[in-house]
Amino acid sequence: MSKQSICAFAPATIANLNVGFDILGMALSTVGDKVEVTFNSSSENRILEIIDGPEIPTDTSKNCCSVVIQKMQEKLGSTEGVDIRIKKGFPSGSGLGSSSASSAAAAFAFNELMGNPFSLDELVLFASEGERVACGSAHLDNVAPAILGGLVLVQNQNLIRLPIPESLFAVSFFPQVEVKTADSRNALSKEVSLEISSNQSALTASFISSLYENDLVRFSESMKDLIVEPQRKKFIPKFDEMKESAFENGALAFGISGSGPSVFAFANSKNQADKIESELKLVFIGSNIETRSFTEMVHGNAGAQLSTFS
Ligand code: HSE
């Protein structure tokens, strides 16, 4: 071990992407979390500081970062404790992969601190343990892109990197109400009709083919959620108005980001994306709900990386 203190950044992510509940996720670049880990010359892990996350637990058995690190220590047989500092870049319950950004940054930083004993794909599995403690389910669709970057398809534990059209811009729009992932998951029916399942499979397959063929018309026609959106949109204020506004302003696709309340839209130019973003803001004028949003090009977005804790 050459270094005693390491900080990593991991980005926010859009999970599900309408056609891939629990199996598709995309890295963003504008916001994310930082986690710093430092050997503390004891056998205990400690959460030293959490910046901008008053709701995040400091109990090491409940904090996603310390849980991820403990799993990695167990696998390595390491008994050296670490101090953990966390800097949240966006709120939990936003639908932009808050717990996964912290879990991914913790896994990446601790791996670096230990001399990189694990591959990036292995880090995704460790980071998913942070999702388990944060929301009761170890799904990989946020943590995979948070670590690997780009757009990732999760097939069981196989992580398949997918191409992203170069001209694609994403608008992430967060109406600031909290939707807990656990509640949003519990609201979903466990049953889907054969007809809907078949139609959704066709849309998912069509979406994947559109990426390889750089076909934004097919991308747009395919990116429809027949299963989850109808059940979750009630948690999201003004969902139908936002969707209508996005499509009226040229969105290629619109949907719920992860478990919400954030929504996303895709556009094929920066101007179009900016227009969609500004019109979505207008939907909330006169309401008492504050919003936060950002627009970015998504091709080439990186995953977890070394950073400085500032
Ligand atoms: N796939 C997850 C869900 C993402 O929709 O519940 C949220 O973490």
Please characterize this protein's 3D structure.
The chain has 310 residues and is α+β, with helices and mostly antiparallel strands. It has 2 domains: 5-162 and 301-306, Ribosomal Protein S5, domain 2 (2-Layer Sandwich), CATH 3.30.230.10; 169-297, Alpha-Beta Plaits, CATH 3.30.70. 36% of the residues lie in helices and 24% in strands. The chain is built from 10 helices and 11 strands. The chain has helices spanning 64-76, 98-113, 120-135, 143-148, 181-186, 194-213, 216-222, 229-232, 239-248, 270-283, and strands spanning 5-15, 24-39, 46-51, 82-87, 151-155, 158-162, 169-175, 253-256, 263-267, 291-297, 305-306. The strands form 2 sheets. Strands 1, 2, 3, 4, 5, 6 and 11 form a 7-stranded mixed beta sheet that branches. It has a 4-stranded antiparallel beta sheet with strand order 8-9-7-10. Strand 5 and strand 6 form a beta hairpin. The longest helix has 20 residues, at 194-213. The radius of gyration is 19 Å and the shape is globular. The mean pLDDT is 96. Bound molecules: L-homoserine. L-homoserine is lined by residues 15-16, 21-22, 139, 141-142, 181, 184-185, 258-259.
